[in-house]
Amino acid sequence: MRPQLFAFALGFNLFINTNFKVLITIWILIFTGFSQRVYASSDSLTAASLLAESTQPGISHEQRLGTLQRAKKLAQQEGDIYSTGNALYEICVVYLEQGDNEQYLIQRRSFNDYFEQYKDNTTALLLKLLDIEHNLRNSNHNEAVLNGEALVKQIRSDDLTRRSRLNDSIYEFTLSDLARLSNFLGIAYFSLGQYEFSQAYFSDSMKYNMELGNQSVVASLLGNLSAVSWSQNDFEKALDYTEQAISILETTEATQTLLRNILNKGVYLVELERPVEAQAIFFDLIQDNNIGSYPDIKISALYNLASSLIESEKFDQAERHLIEAMELSVNLKDEMSINDVNQQLAQLKIAKKDYRAAIPLLKENARYYESKGLKRDMAETYKILSGAYRNLKQYEDALDYLEPYYSLMLELQNESRQKSITEFQEKFDAEQRENEIAALKSQNAIHQLQVESKNNLIKALVAIGVLVILMIWNQLRNKQKLADQFETMSLTDPLTKIGNRRYFKAHINRELEYAKRHMNSNSQQGLGIFIFDIDFFKKLNDRYGHDAGDTVLIEFSQRIKTTLRSSDLLARWGGEEFVVAARINSQKDLPLIASKILTIINGSPFELVGSDPIAVSCSIGGVAYPFINDNDVIPDWHLLINLADHALYEAKQKGRNQWVLVENNNIQDFNELEQSGNETLDDLIKTDRIRLASSSA
């Protein structure tokens, strides 16, 4: 019984048995004294202390909400406007996290009324932060980005306090709030397929949270970074990030974040073709005692378990889990989850060859994803629709969906800006070096034979006359023919049938001389040098086998060849790396050539024997000669290749599937350029000696 009710009952009983006035007096005294005792026992209980209590680890949403509501009421009674503002904001956050949109909007209006009363900057910023989270949770990612970027411009991290609003009883926009905003922006950009910005904001949030010592949040951000790796099909790296996060979270009481990372681990195991382990993780997750407090995580676990079961052809089990997931999604009124489950139900029908039943579900989803601007989900749905129509032999309809699928995938790849650092393969492997040594030895042997033949010829002229001369001349001609054939073979890559590294070395100085002659005649002509390689080639080899890798290398080189003129040099530099030296009319041609190469590679998938066609992309680094305004000097071509290689490295860091060109800004001569050879591009840019142009700019 609550204290007030207890006091009222006592007074009412006394009133029945004694004189009215006396009993009323006694009742008032009892009630007043009791109330004083109650409030006296609560002297140490303040709104600020309740707010601090709401941050305790392990507290459930319900407990936290109850504590915050008590804090708000007490703060209003005490006239503590700062604690009132904090409580109002945190209550809004809890309702957002629970997915209770109706209650959130009610509380948000209360917080806005508070702002209208006090007109303070902190409330204005926190209201904007709430709106961004609300945008995000309702899949309005473009709006979240616009609002988030506008808010970021208002804030300087150096000016923000490192203290906690709740634990330190302050009412300010803190570094913790900025870390939260950065995480929201990372999620929004990720959902839009803009991975460069996504990773940048996740990294900012990680930096702020490490500074604040928030281990559980750092673990959450590791989970987000794993999602970025997943989006680039780097599932091993994604799994590694997630396992790091789980190891941190197991030492904390951040149950929700731990469950999310366990869910992600299962997803990555599916991608790594370890379905038995994945299904065990999903099944344990939906049985977890804490999962009921996080219905969105349970929906995802059910969804992913069903997906894996469909792959294993356990259709009845998959359908049961999807029905449960749909019921939870409808109860939450979560449109995104409803559509995700709907998509999986369509996949189930396709697996059961009921294509006609799957198509309406997929079209409904495609309309939803288009309305939200979710390009990746749109592309995936178009691909499934195309396959469904193909199975129904409705090829015109299949083509109608296949074309926008490839268009969207190309658009997503061009927008992708993942900043992960990848080590390049060795430029010279041992086999190539051995081949070059063997080629040199063979050429030397031929040369010795030619010398010996000439000596024999002189002796023959003296000894045996014209007949022997003719015989030896015929032998020499045959030997020369063999030497020419060997020379051709030694300059040609045996797999792709284009020039090899030695071929490029043998001809590059000729092209530089040609460019120099035209420069001396006051022409703007020059030479563009590009070095490029196939993105994620090792993974392609690992997944499809080395025969498939060889097929891709052959097709890749032939596609590049079709974009070049007969006068341009094309060579396989080693492994999956290629180099081009192309004559240009002006330096404006450089980005045109690079873009043309990207287009021819991305334009259509590569056909593989015994497998579906696969998309292949490449990264390109380039530089133009003349790089320095000194027409009288032909540089060591290694310097130009080195610059192009640096640019290629930058293209990889920027997310692959793009070109980066190095342009001279303030390097005066080739001696200076040679001395800067060991410096990074960042150093050269910071000292204003070079600038970069890229397809991602």
Question: Describe it for me?
Answer:
With 697 residues, this protein is an alpha+beta fold. 69% of the residues lie in helices and 7% in strands. It has 29 helices and eight strands. The protein is globular and about 90 Å long.
* Apparent shape: globular
Query: What's the β-strand tally?
Result: 8
- Percent range for helical residues? 55-70%
Strand order of the largest sheet: 2-3-1-6-7-8
Parts with pLDDT < 50 across at least 5 consecutive residues? 1-43, 416-434, 481-489
Counted by DSSP, the helix tally is: 29
**Strand portion, in percent?**
5-15%
Distance between the termini: 67 Å
Major β-sheet, in short? 6 strands, mixed
